[in-house]
Write a structure and sequence with these properties.
This protein is an alpha/beta fold and 312 residues long. The chain folds into 2 domains: 3-125 and 270-296, Rossmann fold (3-Layer(aba) Sandwich); 127-268 and 301-306, Rossmann fold, CATH 3.40.50. 43% of the residues lie in helices and 20% in strands. The protein contains 10 helices and 12 strands. Helix 3 (82-91) links the parallel strand 3 (61-66) and strand 4 (96-101). It is elongated, with a radius of gyration of 21 Å.
């Protein structure tokens, strides 16, 4: 029987574009066909695409790879969770399901129990450790405390939630660091005006800002542009030198921006796509059981020991 993977992402550019590229490359090595769908961060559209993919390819052995959108709307309540119901719809059609990058482990456990005959797994970044790493970076850069602006992803996204919780967990034992948050939905085009509006608002125009921590590199790069613009517009040149932390650390984005001085540091991740393809191909070849959850490690770039607070 012909085998096919449906890859469901929210963008084919930037970070998710890199996942698309590595899934295609790994699938080519394994002799698997891949069809890519991108929903533009529209959860209902992503759901429709997944069901249509299952229906159109009923004569093939199928597995869906999905970077879920808004998968933490009802955290803790599986039976009424929209992501759970969508997963059930495709699994009942005999289609496997692999969540990439982030996802709810309790949901995966429940789905595996209901469908032990299908490949169901989560191949993710360790997003809690990602957040902890950003917390450690902040502790190195702001050892005496201060105000930190966190530019978050999507508030109903488990990656955003886990990264936020990990960072706050790391900072819990530190006195004096005050974290304020804005949501930018993982989008640089929302992060830049959001940061600018925050820093130039009447009650913050003269307030000190000691660091910005963005949950991905593109939002960090956008925050830098916002601070440069605000430094000129409100006459505060020190804003141009506020440390900015990013995350993902891919060579063409975060790593390059750290080397260019746009970002102070980033958190490097291992993309989940190739590993997911390899696990699925092995499962289809030999029936090797899939682990319920695989989490890839993260690391700081540059190393934590090299991070120093700004003088003055």
């Amino acid at each position: 029987m012909e085998s096919k993977v449906g890859l469901f992402v929210n963008s084919v550019e930037g970070y998710q574009g890199c996942i698309v590229a590595e899934v295609k490359q790994a699938a080519a090595r394994e002799g698997l066909e891949v069809e890519v769908f991108h929903a533009g961060y529209n959860a209902p559209q992503q759901a429709q695409d997944m069901v249509r993919f299952a229906n159109r390819n009923a004569d093939k052995r199928l597995c869906i790879f999905v970077i879920p959108e808004a998968d933490a709307i009802r955290d803790g309540d599986i039976e009424s969770d929209p992501t759970f119901h969508l997963a059930e719809r495709v699994l009942q059609k005999g289609v496997g399901l692999i969540m990439l990058n982030h996802g709810r482990e309790d949901l995966i456990t429940a789905l595996r129990a209901r469908h032990p005959e299908l490949p169901v797994t989560l191949v993710a970044i360790d997003n809690v450790e990602f957040g902890r790493m950003q917390g450690r970076q902040l502790r190195a850069l702001v050892p005496k405390g201060g105000t930190v602006l966190c530019v978050r992803g999507h508030q109903f996204d488990t990656a955003c939630r886990d990264r936020t919780n990990g960072m706050r967990e790391e900072l819990r034992a530190v006195s004096g660091i005050v974290v304020e948050e804005i949501d930018a939905r993982w989008d640089a085009d929302l992060a830049e005006p959001g940061v600018y509006k925050w820093i130039t608002s009447p009650n913050r125009r003269q307030s000190a800002l000691h660091a910005v921590v963005a949950q991905n590199d593109h939002m960090g790069q956008a925050a830098k542009q916002a601070l440069l613009r605000a430094a000129k517009d409100v006459g505060r040149p020190e804003l141009a030198h506020v440390p900015i932390l990013g995350g993902d650390g891919l060579p063409d984005f975060g790593l390059r921006w750290v080397r260019e001085g746009i970002l102070t540091a980033t958190v490097c991740v291992t993309l989940p796509g190739a590993l997911a393809v390899e696990q699925l191909a092995q499962y289809w070849r030999s029936g090797t059981p899939l682990p319920a959850v695989t989490k890839s490690p993260v690391r700081s770039y540059p190393e934590l020991s090299s991070l120093r607070p700004l003088s003055g």
